[in-house]
């Protein structure tokens, strides 16, 4: 057999690669907050807020958040797609934050928070008004699954009125890869 040729063997005879947790990082994201978009035939209805509200809502959408392996800035480990965030006007001294997204497990493998969190800064023109942290569930390799967050947030009516955007800070995550994806 020539030196440059490879021997082909059935998959069952190939050596298995050990799965290894690798640290990965997301990039900072931003979105504006405004009223939820109206229903139209050409667009899916907003996923949050889930229940009809009698109070005002600030709504935002981040198209995707991907986690990249530290050793290569464009090597995608896993992602979260179509993040929708709703902040509901305070009633009874508390506000509700809802988040909806799809976990994208069709990249390098399973993604996990493993104790880390996504940090969302609710902002106005002058700075941070409130912060929400989310320890997301595992993103399962080979699957796209709905993920949600529902959290109470101590927010005054005046603070709610000032909200105009969200910053999603860079975050650490972990990817469990079988070594077969790259």
The first-level CATH class name: Mainly Beta
Give the CA-based shape. Answer: globular
In total, the number of domains comes to: 1
Gross CATH architecture: Sandwich
* Count of distinct strands: 11
Question: Tell me about the biggest sheet?
Answer: 7 strands, antiparallel
Please mark out the parts with pLDDT under 50 across 5 or more consecutive residues, or reply none: 8-12
**What fold name stands as the CATH topology?**
Immunoglobulin-like
- Compressed to H and E, one letter per element, the order equals EEEEEEEEEHEE
- Enumerate the strands of the largest sheet in spatial order, edge to edge or round the barrel: 6-11-1-3-4-5-9
Helical coverage, percent range: under 10%
Q: Termini separation (Å)?
A: 29 Å
Which secondary-structure class do the elements indicate? mainly beta
Mean pLDDT: 82
Q: Helix count, per DSSP?
A: 1
User: Radius of gyration in whole Å, from Cα?
Assistant: 20 Å
